[in-house]
């Protein structure tokens, strides 16, 4: 009998084409396939962005009792502890929000997660799309009479990765540099190859089938190579670009950007790697999305994101993309009124109903999107690690425990980015000796304490993806992006906090 060699094609096909439920079997891999180890497998990155926040700490975080270790850092005491899964019946939890079915949220999976609190955007950013990934200028200007704060836009870190040679050193198999899904929180240069032009919002995809078709390459018979697309317009481009004196500088930029897009299209057309005989999915995310009840139907929302999670997993297994940004505008709830005004903006009401709605919706979002995705990614690679082990998945919200307020924001992560990051931790970076704000709700104090800067976390994420600070820092030792301290907040972020923002976050580095 001939030796059977399992490949990713066998994995995908054996998973029913799209459910991605079966692991690779290392014993069936060709000999030597796992020789590289973790360091030979490129990292992947996923960002999950949700609106609002305003979930109180008692619901969002594990208990403070778990924070048994402390150290002095940046002039104040920070604390950490190990994540502990509590199981009751068929439910498992790290906190009220971070909970789900015990068949998915196992102690083994929790050991690959982190819950990080006390990361601050140091000005009143209010509602925003850009704070999640570093374009802080993408905010609505609340609190300043509609004037944008930190008005200089910057690329989001997913686009910094997507156009970095350190992250995508080999583009031979890559079809999508970055998959932007549902609601775009991604921003990049209009001319990304030269990192010039304007900062523009990246287009998002709401069709899982359309995205699948862009990241999947079926097997084809060999054909003669296509002539380069760019050759068809290059002569006219050179003539217009070099000799037409009437061409304005902005039109020259537009012309260069057009050629760049054609060049990127040509690169993608040249990708010949095949993911094998994967059955094309027959269900598209637009089916639940366009249902009239979608915005108040958690079951339809779960179907929508489950289909996209399958596509992301397929892309990561095939190697045809390694970045995904998920923008969630509808939290998983059935509230019939104005969620924005009636719930998110009223989460502080003493009756507690609004806060109950808010944390329950965030819990359902965590379970149906993040937990579903990281469980699907936790399948074996050729070296015995898992796709999740070689990925950084992060979940961020617009604000911390108070709506609009960017003090004490939380980042929930999963995956160690190929062993670069330490996991299984609850980390509290707040300076609890300094009170930034305090309000009382039914006798319960909601206190905001300043912590470390979100710039430090974003820089740490970029380093975990293999980038050097010189590739992304706008100022030496500055993390990402540049520093902007809001009016009246200088005392909350002393020089000691500002000086460390270019470092990897303490306890996070493996």
Description:
The chain contains 14 helices and 17 strands. Strands 1, 2, 3, 7, 8, 11, 12, 13, 14 and 17 form a ten-stranded mixed sheet that branches. The protein has a three-stranded antiparallel sheet with strand order 4-5-6. It has 510 residues and is of the alpha/beta class. β2 and β3 (76-82) form a beta hairpin. α5 (208-215) packs parallel to α9 (298-318) and α9 packs parallel to α11 (353-377). It has two domains: 38-204 and 322-499; 224-270. The chain has helices at 8-14, 57-60, 107-110, 157-162, 208-215, 231-243, 249-269, 286-289, 298-318, 339-343, 353-377, 454-464, 469-472, 495-499, and strands spanning 44-50, 69-73, 76-82, 86-88, 91-93, 99-101, 113-120, 179-182, 187-191, 196-201, 323-328, 391-397, 409-414, 425-428, 437-441, 444-448, 452-453. The protein is globular and about 70 Å long.
Summary keywords:
single chain, 510 residues, alpha/beta, three-stranded antiparallel beta sheet, 27% helix
What's the helix and strand layout?
Elements: H1 8-14, E1 44-50, H2 57-60, E2 69-73, E3 76-82, E4 86-88, E5 91-93, E6 99-101, H3 107-110, E7 113-120, H4 157-162, E8 179-182, E9 187-191, E10 196-201, H5 208-215, H6 231-243, H7 249-269, H8 286-289, H9 298-318, E11 323-328, H10 339-343, H11 353-377, E12 391-397, E13 409-414, E14 425-428, E15 437-441, E16 444-448, E17 452-453, H12 454-464, H13 469-472, H14 495-499
Parallel strand pairs: 1-11, 1-12, 7-14, 7-17, 8-11
Antiparallel strand pairs: 2-3, 3-14, 4-5, 5-6, 7-13, 9-10, 12-13, 15-16
């Amino acid at each position: 009998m001939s030796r059977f060699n399992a490949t990713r094609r066998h994995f995908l096909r054996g998973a029913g084409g799209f459910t991605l439920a079966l692991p690779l079997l290392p014993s069936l891999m060709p000999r030597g396939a796992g020789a590289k180890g973790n360091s030979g497998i490129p990292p992947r990155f996923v960002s999950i962005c949700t609106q609002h926040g305003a979930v109180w700490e008692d619901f969002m975080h594990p208990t403070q009792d778990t924070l048994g270790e402390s150290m002095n850092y940046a002039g104040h005491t920070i604390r950490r502890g190990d994540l502990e899964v509590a199981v009751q019946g068929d439910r498992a939890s790290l906190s009220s929000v971070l909970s789900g079915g015990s068949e998915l949220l196992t102690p083994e999976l929790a050991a690959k997660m982190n819950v990080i609190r006390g990361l601050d955007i140091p000005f009143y950013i209010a509602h925003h799309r850009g704070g999640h990934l570093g374009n802080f200028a993408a905010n609505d200007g609340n609190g300043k009479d509609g004037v944008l704060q930190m008005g200089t836009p910057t690329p989001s870190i997913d686009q910094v990765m997507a156009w970095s040679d350190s992250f995508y050193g080999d583009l031979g198999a890559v079809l999508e540099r970055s998959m932007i899904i549902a609601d775009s929180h991604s921003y990049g240069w209009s001319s990304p190859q030269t990192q010039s032009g304007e900062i523009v919002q990246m287009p998002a995809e709401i069709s899982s089938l359309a995205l699948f078709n862009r990241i999947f390459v079926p097997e084809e018979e060999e054909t003669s190579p296509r002539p380069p697309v760019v050759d068809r317009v290059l002569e006219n481009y050179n003539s217009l670009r070099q000799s037409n004196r009437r061409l304005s500088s902005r039109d020259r930029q537009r012309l260069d950007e057009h050629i760049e897009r054609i060049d990127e299209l040509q690169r993608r057309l040249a990708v010949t790697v095949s993911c094998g005989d994967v059955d094309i999915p027959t269900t598209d995310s637009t089916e639940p999305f366009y249902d009239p009840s979608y915005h108040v139907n958690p079951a339809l929302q779960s179907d929508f994101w489950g289909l996209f999670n399958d596509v992301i997993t397929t892309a990561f297994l095939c190697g045809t993309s390694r970045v995904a940004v998920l923008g969630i505008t509808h939290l998983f709830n059935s509230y019939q009124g104005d969620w924005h005004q009636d719930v998110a903006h009223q989460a502080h009401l003493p009756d507690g109903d609004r806060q109950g709605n808010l944390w329950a919706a965030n819990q359902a979002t965590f379970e149906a999107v993040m937990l579903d995705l990281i469980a699907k990614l936790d399948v074996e690679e050729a070296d015995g690690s898992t796709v999740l082990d070689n990925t950084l998945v992060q979940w961020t919200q617009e604000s911390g425990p108070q709506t609009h307020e960017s003090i004490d924001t939380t980042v929930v992560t999963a995956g160690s980015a190929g062993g670069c990051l330490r996991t299984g931790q609850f980390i509290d970076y707040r300076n609890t000796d300094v009170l930034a704000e305090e309000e009382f709700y039914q006798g319960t104090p909601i206190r905001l304490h300043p912590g470390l800067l979100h710039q430090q976390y974003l820089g740490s994420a970029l380093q975990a993806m293999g980038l050097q600070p010189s590739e992304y820092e706008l100022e030496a030792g500055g993390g990402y992006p540049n520093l902007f301290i809001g009016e009246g907040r200088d005392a909350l972020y002393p020089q000691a906090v500002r000086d460390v923002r270019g470092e990897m976050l303490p306890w996070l580095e493996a």
